[in-house]
Amino acid sequence: MQLIGMLDSPYVRRVAISLQLLGLPFTHESVSVFRGFDRFRSINPVVKAPSLICEDGSVLMDSILILEYAEAHADKTRSLVPADLPGLRHSLYLIGLAMAANEKSVQIVYEQKLRPADKLHQPWLSRITGQLSAAYDALEVEFAKRRETVTSENIDQATVSTAVAWNFTREMLPELVSEQTYPALAALSKVAEALPEFKAAPFGDGTYVSR
Fold first, then answer.
1. What's the CA gap between 72 and 180, in Å, rounded?
2. In this predicted structure, what is the pLDDT of residue 10?
3. Residue 184 and residue 179: Cα distance in Å, rounded?
4. Residue 8 has pLDDT above 90, yes or no
5. Helix (H) or strand (E) run with residue 8 in it
6. What is the mean pLDDT of the chain?
7. How far out from the chain centre does Cα 157 lie?
8. What is the three-state SS of 111-146?
9. What's the Rg (C-alpha) of the chain?
């Protein structure tokens, strides 16, 4: 399998980390949907990151769908989502919050860095900033309850997605999410980023290299 997209995308990065945790070998090509538009279009005409080229040459896109395939593909001795219904429901709740944080962070970055200043609509920016804060407020409450130390062996998809989202927002919009306001998420990020699977797929324009 080959993962296409840049690791400065939280969607690409959560896939790269999850594939490692599930024990699925893959290679990675760091292609920007902006600077590498033509190259990306030659792989996936929709130009959506992440894209995953499967063993048979078919191309999957969207991190949620790619990880659904990865879970079905992986050795059943390891899964990143609970098998029991209550556990799955709570995991999906947390993943939904993390994905909302990703989405709103990306929207704010686009508003601030891509839209001309005279076209910026402050009521819209205020709205999505409030949504971002709401997502992290809820995640902070949930992860403040946890006492188990996160390891490569026990980390789940909700934790991967939350740690990746937090790191992305801190990298791109540090003024919006302080470690003082969200101490549990800051502590989680510090532990997660030290795991080998996170280190192998660091935030930025680099390329994942299998260990």
1. 39
2. 98
3. 8
4. yes
5. none
6. 95
7. 10
8. HHHCCCHHHCCHHHHHHHHHHHHHHHHHHHHHHHCC
9. 17
What are the angstrom distances between the C-alpha of 63 and each of 14, 27, 48, 148? 8, 16, 10, 27
The string of pLDDT tens digits covering residues 14-40 is 999 999 999 999 999 999 999 999 999
Tokens at 78, concatenated: 């390891």
Signed CA dihedral, 93, 98, 101, 106: sign only: negative
Q: What are phi and psi of 60, to 5 degrees?
A: -100, 150
Q: Which residues contact 160 (CB under 8 A, 6 or more apart)?
A: 14, 17, 18, 21, 80, 192
Q: How far apart are CA 77 and CA 89, in angstroms?
A: 21
- For the stretch 114-160, pLDDT in tens is 788 777 788 999 999 999 999 999 999 999 999 889 999 999 999 99
Contact predicate 162/185, CB 8 Å: yes
Locate 23 and state its tokens.
């024990």
Q: How far apart are CA 169 and CA 175, in angstroms?
A: 9
Enumerate helices (H) and strands (E) in the chain, giving the number of each: 8, 4
Are the C-beta atoms of residues 157 and 95 closer than 8 Å to each other? Answer: yes
For the chain, what's the residue count? 211
Instruction: Compute the 3-state secondary structure of the chain and give helix, strand, coil in percent, each to the nearest 5.
Output: 55, 5, 40
Pairing of strands 59-61, 51-53: antiparallel
CA separation for the pair 154, 148 (Å, rounded): 9
pLDDT of residue 32: 94
Q: Which helix (H) or strand (E) holds 102?
A: helix 85-113
